[in-house]
Structure formats: structure tokens, C-alpha cells
Amino acid sequence: MLKALKKITLGIALSSFLTLPTFAEISVPDIGTAGIMGLTVQKEEQIGNYFMRTARSHLPIVVDPVLDEYVSSVGNKLLMHAKGVQFPFEFFIVNNLNLNASAFLGGKVQINTGLFVYSDTEDEFASVLAHEISHVTQRHIARFIESEVKKSNTSIASMVGAIALSIINPAVGMAALSTSLGIAQQSRINFTRENESEADRIGIDLLNRAGFNPAGTTDMFRKLLNMQGNINPVFALLVDHPLSEVRIAEAENRIAHFKKKKDSTNPDFFMAKARIDVRYKKNDFADLKEILKNDTKANRYYKNYALALTCYELNEYAEAKTYLNNLGASMQNNLFVVDLLTDIDLKEHNYQSAINRLNSLHKRMPRNKAVIVNLANAYIQSGQNQRAIRLIRDYLKRDRGYPLSYTLLTEAYLKSGNRCEALQAQGEDFALKANYNRAIGSYNEALNICRNNLTVEIIKARVSELIEQRAFDAELNKSW
Fold it and tell me: Whole-model pTM?
């Protein structure tokens, strides 16, 4: 889908068709001196949303709804069996080939593309997510902040901002964190040995309860330990979570008490891995195609999907479809397959073929992000802008935080000649990336165009909310 989506210049926001989220209770953060453990769930969610806005403005976040759905499915499968989950988690992918993942307050979990590259099984991949989820549910980050605030007599707001930056930009963030604490830090968050042991124990149990092979944890540990002797910066996970033979032995002893499980054979993992390898690495596609064709050991889902993606990049659409057919009839409604078939249909101007396929899936999966944005894009490319608008507006009632939906909505409004709505949508797109000056500018421009009195009042109220949200972010950014 993304390969068919054109870059547009007008952004996106919400307007009178939605009840906008209110930020009136946020104001400038008084996260106070009473200790981080006293943070309300609402306040922690607000801090997590601040982190996401900051991440969107500073990190190369992968905008890929199919991959987003996949990581969310793995994360949610784990969360269904987790204890102490107080708010919705959000998993997002960053285009960084270093093997790493990081968790932040509010259940925000960053996954590097490198985690796909270096994981050989879905169980290894899920083991890292389970570990990060456990750091959040056990309040390790919160406890770290509370401990350092007490020791260094700094403010919680300063600590929160510095830690957010240290995850987003380690080099700059470590300087900010060192300044905030008045000491030199060796890692983004110095989890104690007890923290790591607890996250290992709970993460392994969580992995097992969720149906994954808990041995994926030690498989990943061994892989990392082999790299630890001469610490390669590619294996950034080692910096945050240093390994030892004792730690691995403890994990192995715990796993020995479980009934043995086979490794996951979920085709989606192998296709997600292929998608990362083909689309998010620098490739010579002609060379890559020959390498893939000659690879006799690759998983068949990985190989055929990687070849299909590579042929698509080489404009060899008929051959790409052949490799997708090799996956079998049962896979033709798989999201990874449907997404690529949609890309091919749109390139070949077979708009109705794409729309029919996606409409059939939408009836079965009416809330699936990948289906919705693909269908909306197909409507737009075929000139059915009002259908795209209705579809996205309905989706935004459930999820207001996905920037790609705003990009599509903006394009649909522009193509339908509704600049009033497009400018409001653009404002929200900028706001999601903490670009408040441009967000407010878009809304102010909309005030000069929109004629409906209710719309004008809603815009004015939204600008006021954005000003307060900007103040909230600025307070946390002071440590930068």
C-alpha cells in the first residue's frame, strides 16, 4: 500500500466530524515531588503520549500498517496473559538495523528493524517484547526515576524528559541524563540486576503462557552473549541489558520447569522479516533476486514473499504474483499478501480489483488498520474520495493517533476540493509529531477559509488545547 501512496504537502487533522480529545486537564505538568509511584494512570498515559509525539518528530518511524498490525498482534498476544497492565500499550517500529527494543512510561515500546533481522524465530522476537513489557508492568522505569530523583534532588519532569531523549537519541540523551542526574550514566536506564532478573522471570513466564516457546529467550541470550566479548554497537540491546552466564543459567533453569514447546511456525513472522530485509535495507534488487533464488535453506514463506517484494521493486509484477501464488491458496487473504497485491493492482490501474478484495476483507475485519488504510488509498487512487473520507472518519473515532490515516484523509479532502477540512486535518498531523507551530498555523489558515460557525468555534478550542499541549511538552523538554 505504501508504495502506491503519493507524497502530499497538506498534512491532516480532525474537524467538526469528531469529538476532539481534550487536553484541558494536562496544563503544565506538575509531576511533583511526591514520587513517581504516585503518578496516576492518566498522567502516565499523558507522559507516554508525549514520548510518542517526540519520537515521531525525531525518529525514522516505519510507516507500514501491515508491519504495525503484526507487531501489535504479537504484543497483544503477550499482553492478554500479562499482569499489571494499566493502560493500552503501543508498539512501533523504527528503521534502525541495530538489534534493540526499548520501553517507556505509558506502555510505549520501540522496536528496531534490527530485531527482525537478527531474530531467527518468532519466539526470539517475542521474548524481547515480553522482557520490555515486563519492565513496564513491574514499574522498573518508574522506580528508576523515583530512585534517581531522591538521590540527585532533580525534578521528575526533568528526569522524564532526559530519559525520553536518551531512548530517542542515545548520544544526545545520555548527556542530558548525565546533566539531570549530575553523574555519568553508562546506559539509558540503569536497571538493577534485580530488575533484569525480575523482567527475565516474568517475561519467560509470560512468553510461555502466551503460547510461545520460552526457549526463545535463551536462544536470543546466547546469540547476544556470543557478540558480547567485543561489544559491537549493532547489538545495542547488550548496552541496556548486559548478559552473563549466570543470568542465562537462571533463565535456562526456569524454562526447564515448563513443558517443552516447538518453535512458532507463524508465516507472518517470516513475511515480516522478509519485508524488513527487502524494503528497509539498502539493496540492489537485481542482485538480491539472484541471491534469494539460489538460497536453498530459507523458510518458504520468507523466500517467496521476499522474492515477490523484490520483483515488485523491479516492476516485474506478473512474476511477483507467481511467487505470491507459491505461498498457497490459504495465504491469499493474508494481510502481507493482500497488501502487496493491492500495490500491484494500483500500479496497473486495476482499482476495482483491489477494492473488491479489500472490501471482502473489511467485512470480516472491520477494525483492521492495514485493511482500512489500503482500502482508503485504493478509493482515493480511483477517484472515490468521499468513500475514502467516510472510511477514515469512522476509523478515527477509534484511533486518533495514527498519522497515516490523516495523510490519506488530507489527500481525499484536497482531491474533493474541501480545503477547510484538509487544513484542519493537516493541523492534527503536525500535532501528532509535536510540530505545534505548523499545526496552529494550519488551524489558523482554516479559520480564514471555513464558514460554518460551529467549525470555527471547534477550531478555536483546538488551538487552545494545542497551546496547552505545547506547554506540557516544553516543560518535559527543559532537560534537553
Answer: 0.87
What angle separates helix 193-209 from helix 140-152, to the nearest 10 degrees? 170
Q: Which of 145, 115, 153, 158 is nearest to 29 (CA)?
A: 158
Strands, E assignment, 149-250: none
Q: Which three cell numbers mark 374?
A: 489500503
* Residue 407 amino acid letter: T
Return all residues near 366 (Cβ < 8 A) that are at least 6 apart.
Answer: none
Cell of 45: 498515559
Count of other CB atoms within 10 angstroms of residue 72: 16
The amino acid occupying position 28 is V
208: cell is 510461555
CA distances from 141 to 63, 88, 118, 175 (A): 27, 17, 26, 19
Per the structure block, which three cell numbers stand in for 184?
555519568
Q: What is the DSSP letter of 110?
A: E
Measured at the CA of 257, the angle between CA 255 and CA 263, to 5 degrees, comes to 45
Kindly list the catalytic residues.
Answer: 132, 200
* Average pLDDT score over the chain: 85
On the question of pLDDT at 432 being above 50, the answer is yes
State the pLDDT confidence band at 26, using cuts at 50, 70 and 90: very low
The proportion of the chain whose per-residue pLDDT surpasses 90, expressed as a percent, equals: 67
The grid cell for 126 is: 517475542
Chain-centroid distance of CA 386 in Å reads 29
Give the C-alpha distances (Å, rounded to integers) separating 183 from 154, 156, 176, 248. 12, 16, 10, 30
312-369 tens-digit pLDDT = 999 999 999 999 999 999 999 999 999 999 999 999 999 999 999 999 999 999 999 9
Q: State the virtual CA torsion across 287, 289, 290, 292 in degrees, nearest 10.
A: 120
Structural contact between residues 180 and 162, judged by C-beta atoms closer than 8 angstroms: yes
What pLDDT, on the 0 to 100 scale, is given for residue 318? 98
Question: Rounded distance, CA 166 to CA 239, Å?
Answer: 13
Which residue, among 217, 233, 22, 34, has the nearest Cα to 132 in the 3D structure? 217
